[in-house]
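Researcher: Here's my situation. A collaborator sent me these components and asked whether they could plausibly form a single complex. I don't have experimental data yet, so a predicted model of the whole assembly would be a useful starting point for our discussion.
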Amino acid sequence: MSGQSWRRMLPHPSQRSRALHMSTRASAMLILVLGAVFGVLMGAGSAGAQTDDSGPQAIFGQLDYEDVEVQEDIVVPGVIIEVDGVGTSETDDNGEFRIEVPGPGPYVVTLDVDTLPTSINLRNPENNPLNIQVREGSDQRVLFPLIEGEAGSGDDSGGVSFRRVAQLTAEGLKQGLYLAMAAIGLSLIFGTTGLVNFAHSELVTWGMLSSFFFNFYGLAGVIGFLAPLPPPFGGGVNLILAAVFGMLCGAALGYVLNRFIFRSARQAGVSLIAQMVMTIGLSILLRYFFLYLFGGSPRTFGDYAAQRAVSIGPIELTPKDIVAMSLSVVVLVAVASYLEMTKMGKAMRAVADNRDLAESTGINVERVITWVWVSGAALAAISGVFFGLDQVKWDFGFRILLLIFAAVTLGGLGKAYGALVGALIVGLAINLSTLVIDAEVKNMVALLILAVILLFRPQGILGQRERIG
Amino acid sequence: MDWGFILERTISTMFGVEVMVFALAAVGLNVHFGYTGLLNFGQVGFLAAGAYGLGITVTYLSWSFWIGILFGVVYSIVLALILGLPTLRLRADYLAIVTIAASETIRLLVRWRRSKEITGGAEGIGEFADPFYDVSINPFSVGVRYEFGPFSYVGRDMWVLTVGWIVLILTVLFVKRLMSSPWGRTLKAIREDEDAARALGKNAYFYKLQSLMLGGVIGGMAGMLQVIQKGSIQPDTFNPVITFTIWAILILGGPGRTWSPVIGSMIYWTLIAFLENVLRDLPEGASETLEDTIGLSDFNISQVRFMLVGLGLLLLARYRPQGIFGSREEMALDDR
């Protein structure tokens, strides 16, 4: 598959417009920085203004905020902007809006705060609505600087209120559930083969990116000339279907990695340490392959990108989050019943407990390992799709590698249920920690958990003493 | 294509700054992994500790550059203690998990907006290295290009290279001497069979901790030399790929051998420089064909390089874990 060519041949509309807006985006960012410094609205200088003699004049702009964790600007689609007496507009997938106005003169621009996503707020709430002056012959850019977290001062970590605790608990639960799906595979692969798979996080990214691919290019997108076919073969499929394909891709990659790389390594007697170095090599290879194909900028899925949060008591979640969280509970319950009730599930646990004993009772260990790789990779892929509902990025998996390892170690390396418990604790702990520390460094809490657990109970919560050797 | 030009640029790489810095970092990793068998997947964290130890002392505390060097060493030791104390009693892969996580955490910590006052945040630290170039024994003048046959370096780099290579060679000789001492032989014994070493009354835990500190300090020196050459400290240059490149270099040369980090580094960087120079200097038609078919351009050439590092590491660990020159008896990446 020549990755770059499918992107070039089938430019997605929003991608094309993104390229066109590259220069205005750069200048918009510059202005945004200046605006933040002075706290005032910057007039449309020569950088931002587009001279348009023929068409009608317009008020335009782009909404984005800096995600403090990934240090990148994230655009905000689906926000309603109103120009009094003229009309309204909703920001598109690039966070851009444009409202045509009859002519030069003063206007009042209002941002509908209720349409902002959860936890995103105006940096200067007092500047909304905004009085602006459209000048003769040029479009007028307006800025609404946004920040993540509470409005007002940027580094106010907020007080401890019941509402905030409830909201953070919900978000921690969400992250923990998604993490659990990624962690179970890692833990089971370690349990059955003794291998610490550093490439597991790349399986998460793989699920995310392949779903993105199907979401935009459909089943035939791999082969460029088939693109004009009707959906689901060309032109992109709904995210739900794309997620299923992504999961199948994840399972397939898991199978391939085990069958062609690690099974032969096991059979050739390559030591576990060498195999671990192999997974590190594999991880870099895959990660930079993803970067090569996908490019460095973050994107969003084509469906359900802009959703408004709904309130459930003190908690605000988007419908997609609620659906994904419910689905992950279903998946995790299904995994648990699979491990408890089916023959293969029991065999997996048996091999993880004691490989030699399991083999001597007639369990086909290689077959079990194949299934562990396939199902573990598929679970990681689903986790990637769910995480991708917020943002799709080439190195997402690597960014949560620490969290996955903290979860697995906390629960006990090799224990399927340990990974589940560990993931939930890690998810809750890092999100609730933002009550006292900056969101930017919340992932460090995972490292702290890791250090503490290794000092005091290295076998993990559910692990047995002899595992740590 | 101008092969003469390509070769000239490639040859200059062989004794260049990258080779020197990565060789020194790999000497540190060789102490960890090659001689002691410690799985340190966060060597870049030690590079960062050295660099920031120097930078913070000079710019934030406004102390002298030479005290900064001392602090770079101290920071590396402290990092080794933080990493080693909880993990070295446990099975080897726990150190791997903690080091890989910690090195990335260090990067996030130094670029955190609240540590901006001390570490310079995402912009990093600049203007701390001048005393290094201003010393009276520096015979090279900045801005002049020095040429020795096919080798050519700018004056600023010449001084870093001279000091760096002296440090590197002395370190390699020191490590060689140390590893044939009783202390070094104990490390090798722990690598081969920790239980046996313990049965002989050696405190394996403390030996491993000392080894982690020694290798960490060598890594810290590599980090200091790197930022002295660059003249600035950028948090994002200390990313995990650096660690994996150091691993690839060490395994390429053969872990547990005296000169393997230097040889591995030379092979790696010469190969990379050759590939990049060839790809950048392709005839017009060929480079356009490459761009049209697989989208390869000047812009993403370094991504291909990292893919090759990954592939190389994967294949080396699978087929020649003892490295190109290593022997199976000395080092076979065994379980311990």
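Model: Some features of this prediction you could bring to your collaborator: The radius of gyration of chain A is 25 Å. Chain A touches chain B through 54 residues (CB under 8 Å).
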